[in-house]
Fold this sequence. Notes:
- This protein has about 300 residues and is of the alpha+beta class.
- It has one domain (about 5-305): (Glycosyl)asparaginase (Glutamine Phosphoribosylpyrophosphate, subunit 1, domain 1, 4-Layer Sandwich).
- About 35% of the residues lie in helices and about 25% in strands.
- It has helices spanning about 20-45, 50-60, 105-115, 125-135, 140-145, 145-155, 230-235, 235-245, 250-265, and strands spanning about 5-15, 80-90, 95-100, 120-125, 175-180, 185-190, 215, 220-225, 270-275, 280, 290-295, 300-305.
- An eight-stranded mixed sheet has the order 4-3-2-6-5-1-11-12. A four-stranded antiparallel sheet has the order 7-8-9-10.
- Strand 9 (about 270-275) and strand 10 (about 280) form a beta hairpin.
- It is globular and about 50 Å long.
- The protein starts with a strand and ends with a strand.
- About 55% of the residues are buried.
- The mean pLDDT is about 95.
- Bound molecules: aspartic acid (ASP).
Amino acid sequence: MRTFSIAIHGGAGTITRSLMSSEKEKLYREALTYALNQGEEILRKNGTALDAVTAAVVALENNPLFNAGKGAVFTNTGKHEMDAAIMRGDTLEAGAVAGISAVKNPILLAKEIMQFSGHVFLAGNQAEDFARSRGLAFETPEYFHDEFRFGQWMSVKDEEGYQLDHTDEKKFGTVGAVAKDAFGNLAAATSTGGMTNKRWGRIGDSPVIGAGTYANNESCAISCTGHGEFFIRAVVAYDIHCLMVYKGLSLQQACELVVNDKLVKMGGEGGLIAVDHLGNIALPFNSEGMYRGFATPEESIIEIYK
Length: 306
Ligand code: ASP
């Protein structure tokens, strides 16, 4: 068994070498390395999986390259509506938030909800009232504004549907982290701006416990990225847990079955990061690429393409 394992993602989608300049690739790699290091350092010092996934996701939320926190995509009305969730595998406590616009780090609000609200899932303005009562940092719309995301929205805003976070480079920029700590505990965290041009208070899979985020010491911790509607309908994260617990599949087998068979048959594009109670890591995706990385006591790796 590994003393610790951590994996992160910065979204899945069509990420091909031909669409990526070397400067941009360098920026992504640096951002992923920085976020991974934030979590890894905590685990190396015998910190908790919960603190490690929180630190990694905060680092990704603060970087406008990713569709979470600063740099979140625009809704149909030109706003930001962010979703996030966190879960600990030892107690099965969870916190989730949807449709918030001004909290600097949605993952910190999800954690406060888990620890101090007496509830699991809060939404909208009233979730922000709770954030205020907990003294969390707020930001202005200018802080969340990113020219690249704005351009993405302008190009599709008069169209009927919503868009996955893409232009010529189709990708889902949601972020997430999963970890196993030295105490054998697991945790998962996911944060997103959702999908460009989304309407009617649309909420994706990321904050839905069991769909985009799940952790259970009996099996694994999971954080998903991809076309959220499919991930909700396939109850992706909990399905992987069930396949391991009820059917005895390994982490790798369960992830492969769900991501590269069940989801593909439904038409659900995306991927996920997973760690099991032994510290094994799986990073499956059925899209062309996924911004991802993992670290164990022995190695630390960042990857983007297939
Ligand atoms: N899963 C996210 C959602 O549907 C999108 C993403 O992964 O980028 O909201």
